[in-house]
Design goal:
Length: 452
């Protein structure tokens, strides 16, 4: 049997032995069936059951709750949305974009509030994100980000000059207070238990093979339901009905041995703070509650046909690159031991626009496409889907991401060529900026295609 505690550092330290729950015991009939036991599915179940305590809610999970990105991520509960405020304004108008930004910022606190209401300790500490600028080009990008945020009037970003930042070579930083550091597996595993306490059922080791409105075919029986929620995020690419809805893109992570407080003081990273820099090929890190680096980044390639395999979670070249990058940012980290290495797929929609959607005619809901910004956004999705599924008309159901329709990804070989070209372009863009000391032309051309 699979040892799920070995999936990541987070799974190993979740305080949960990850023994699978019972699978579906044959055919079943429920009010709401939810496909996928990650945070989208579980938050939806949790908020639904608070609203309608007698509801029969069944979560169908192929492996164990928290097996996917929800248990493996960087632990940034941020206010980030894959589309910037400016891009949302262009797509939906200023008022709608402001409402979306406000909802995302409030969601960071809601994650902490809801976890404690559910009795889950998730190591929540809201210390903000330091986004280092390590070249003149990055410094200009940091200033522009802070200026844009100020002009938009919702976010409370600050520009920090070189005197306030201690990462190697950092000339300044953009600081965003709207971000908390959490332990993602403690959240998702605790939430699964909280859903059960409210009367929900979670069937693990139960693979959904196909679905249509009102009917879900699984490896263990057929589920008939009044309403259906698809919460498979990057794994949606493995189901016929959602194959081209999202592209599974891999993000990989490492964790180091615990480091003394003096190390963190030297580099100015307090508990609760997360960090990144302004390079194009995304990196992200946090100081864990037990004083390790949990540090990740993109760079693993997209696989033909959107195939997802356990072996794709582990790419030595990317792990080495992550350790090297950590050492560049914090030279004293060069010699620290890397104790854990893992990765997983996240879901990228064709236009990089996440959504929480519901079709009342078919009674089918879906949320996802968060790219790398799903940890808080799944909570907003859960609350929003709970409103939509119960017919409530609220501020949340009027947000501009509700019922947003992204175009499908192209068939192969175009999807393969485009996704990997985008990845390479971001790598080249970072090199180009190092050489030319100017904002990358490649990034400007490719940016709209890869969500920058
Ligand atoms: C390495 C990594 C780092 C990340 N870092 C961050 C971060 O720091 N901050 C942030 O905001 N976001 C981050 N993300 C993204 C974030 O984790 C995801 O957006 C979010 O967890 C998505 O949650 P979900 O419930 O929609 O999907 P998932 O957690 O992927 O859940 C989908 C579930 O569906 C199940 N499933 C799949 N197929 C089937 C089937 N056929 N039948 C039944 N069940 C099925 C899977 O087993 C899985 O449990 C990161 C992602 C990764 C991979």
């Amino acid at each position: 049997m699979t040892d799920y505690s070995q999936l990541s550092f987070w799974h190993e330290t979740s305080g949960d032995d990850l023994t699978p729950r019972a699978p579906l015991a044959g055919d079943a009939e429920v009010d709401v069936a939810i496909v996928g036991g990650g945070l989208t599915g579980l938050w939806t179940a949790w908020y639904l059951l608070q609203r309608e305590p007698g509801l029969k809610v069944l979560v169908l999970e192929k492996e164990v709750a928290g097996f996917g990105a929800s248990g493996r991520n960087g632990g940034w509960a941020s206010a980030l949305f894959p589309r910037s405020a400016g891009s949302l304004e262009r797509a939906h108008g200023r008022d709608a974009a402001i409402a979306m930004r406000r909802a995302m910022i409030d969601t960071v606190d809601e994650v902490g509030r809801a976890a404690s209401a559910a009795g889950i300790d998730i190591d929540f500490a809201k210390g903000g994100t330091i986004d280092y600028a390590r070249s003149r080009v990055q410094l200009a990008a940091a200033r522009a980000e802070v200026d844009d945020a100020r002009a938009f009037g919702v976010d409370a970003l600050e520009f920090w000059d070189a005197t306030k930042v201690k990462a190697a070579g950092a000339l300044g930083a953009a600081f965003d207070p709207a971000c908390a550091r959490i332990h993602p597996a403690k959240l998702v595993r605790g939430l699964a238990r909280a859903v059960e306490k409210l009367g929900g059922t979670i069937a693990e080791q139960t693979e959904v093979l196909d679905y249509r409105p009102g009917r879900v075919e699984t490896s263990r029986g057929v589920v008939t339901c009044d309403r259906l929620v698809i919460a498979t995020e990057g794994y949606g690419a493995t189901l016929r009905a959602t194959h081209r809805r999202v592209l599974p893109l891999y993000s990989l992570m490492i964790a180091t041995e615990p480091l003394p407080d003096a190390f963190w003081d030297e580099f100015g990273i307090a508990h609760g703070q997360t960090f990144a820099d302004f390079r194009h090929l995304v990196i992200y890190g946090q100081r864990t509650a037990d004083n390790r680096f949990a540090f990740g980044g993109r760079g693993a390639r997209y696989h033909w046909g959107s195939v997802i395999k356990p072996s794709y979670d582990r790419v030595p070249r990317v792990f080495d690159h992550l350790h090297r990058t950590l050492g560049e940012l914090f030279p004293a980290a060069r010699d620290v031991a890397v104790t854990h290495r893992w990765g997983g797929p996240l879901g990228v929609p064709r236009d990089w626009h996440a959504t929480a959607s519901y079709d009342p005619a078919k009674r089918v809901a879906w949320a996802g496409g968060y790219v790398g910004d799903g940890l808080s956004t799944t909570n907003l999705a859960g609350r929003t889907l709970a409103d939509l599924l119960t017919g409530a008309d609220t501020e949340l159901t009027r947000l501009p991401w509700v019922n947003h329709h992204s175009p499908s990804w192209e068939p192969e070989p175009l999807r393969f060529a485009g996704a990997n070209a985008g990845m390479l372009a971001m790598q080249f863009a970072d090199v180009e900026e190092k050489i030319t000391h100017r904002r990358s032309l490649i990034a400007r051309v490719m940016g709209p295609l890869v969500g920058h």
